[in-house]
Amino acid sequence: MLGALTGAVEQGLIYGIMALGVYLTFRVLDFPDLTVDGSFVTGASTAAMMIVLGYSPLLATVTAMIAGFVAGMGTGLLHTKGGINPLLSGILMMIALYSINLRIMGLTVENSVGRPNIPLLQSETLITKYISFVESLGIPSSYAIVVGALLVVAVVKIVLDLFLKTEVGLALRATGDNKRMIRSFSGNTDRLTIIGLALSNGLVALSGALIAQYGKFADVGMGIGMIVIGLASVIIGEALFGTKSIVRITFAVIVGAVIYRLVLAFALRIEFLDTGDMKLLTALIVILALILPNRLSALKKQAVRKRVEARKGGVELAKHS
Fold first, then answer.
1. Measuring CA to CA, how many Å separate 75 from each of 81, 112, 192, 228?
2. Residue 194 exposed, middle or buried by CB count within 10 Å (0-12, 13-18, 19+)
3. CB-count burial class (<10 Å; 0-12, 13-18, 19+) for 22
4. Quick check: 212 and 44 in contact, CB under 8 A?
5. Which run of H or of E encompasses 25?
6. End-to-end CA, the chain
7. Which pLDDT band, with edges at 50, 70 and 90, does 216 fall under?
8. Which residues contact residue 209 at a Cβ distance below 8 angstroms, ignoring those fewer than 6 apart?
9. Are strands 217-219 and 117-119 parallel, antiparallel or unpaired?
10. How far apart are CA 63 and CA 120, in angstroms?
11. d(CA 150, CA 67)
12. Which of 23, 53, 79, 84 is the most exposed place for a label (fewest CB within 10 A)?
């Protein structure tokens, strides 16, 4: 049980980077970006392909992030320059990335034909190099991945927090709130939208690259439903910790991703559920996260109203007595 919980926290932290990317488009830009399902695999396939071809895992991970950045720019250009609906832009890029990802993984075989997956069981990855480094220091590696993932996600969170407080970051946030206002100040909302989408999908691809190295494989189907998982993390985090500041929200999103993984880990220990029910569980978690805060808020308002009415009733009774 402890091993399952540790694994859930490890995955939750790595998926937290992907959730931060989803937060950028979903909350900051107010853009329904479905590119995530494709760019997550783009990150995984690019990193796996380069590792198998003998490149440094660090270089492979950075290149994967750049590939996601380019994919996000593609969606941004389709929307801003092509005039295509935001939802449709993401869908089109996601579909295109499916074939591109097959081609990327196909670079590891002769004739570069499409390939649906790449195993990394015998390859040296960032995870294996990190574990070897920890063990060489004489430190037990039981919780090494948790600590390492915590450090990586903390660095990403701090950099994102600082970026969103810069002039470009503030303009990005304002673009999501009110595009007309930014245009009235001569702001280039098209460029800001492209930057936001590129950064978002860069983070998603980074998460995909790390998950591929963590799970020791990359598969063309591993991105299916990723946008829903990202949304679940954002919604759960916001429901639990609120949205009072950027620092607090990004922290909430990461914790939301960890809680989501822990809930799945507990749910999958129920006898009649198996791994094939994960998508159903994800949908149920998102539905609960959307409904419960509203219901609790309504109950809280109802309780306050009853207390006020009871207090008024007491005052009236005191006047007549």
1. 10, 26, 13, 18
2. buried
3. buried
4. yes
5. none
6. 64
7. very high
8. 43, 44, 46, 47, 60, 61, 64, 65
9. antiparallel
10. 17
11. 24
12. 53
Q: Are 226 and 18 in contact (CB under 8 A)?
A: yes
Tokens of 51: 């590792």
**Which residue type is seen at 219?**
D
| Tokens representing residue 154 in the block | 């903390």
Condensed to tens digits (0 to 9), the pLDDT of residues 143-194 reads 888 899 999 999 999 999 999 999 988 988 888 888 888 887 777 889 999 9
Q: Please choose, from the candidates 200, 227, 204, 278, the residue with its C-alpha nearest in 3D space to the C-alpha of residue 44.
A: 204
Token duo for residue 17: 């980077």
Query: Contact, 37 vs 228, CB < 8 A?
Result: no
Q: How far apart are CA 188 and CA 170, in angstroms?
A: 13
Tell me which H or E stretch contains 222: none
Q: How far apart are CA 130 and CA 202, in angstroms?
A: 23
Query: CA-CA distance, 183 to 255, in Å (whole number)?
Result: 35
Nearest of 35, 43, 40 to residue 91 by alpha carbon: 35
Give the range among 143-147, 152-156, 249-253, 283-287 with minimum mean pLDDT: 283-287
Q: Which residue has the tokens 């997550």?
A: 40
- Cβ atoms of residues 120 and 52 within 8 Å: yes
Cα 1 to chain centroid distance, Å, stands at 26
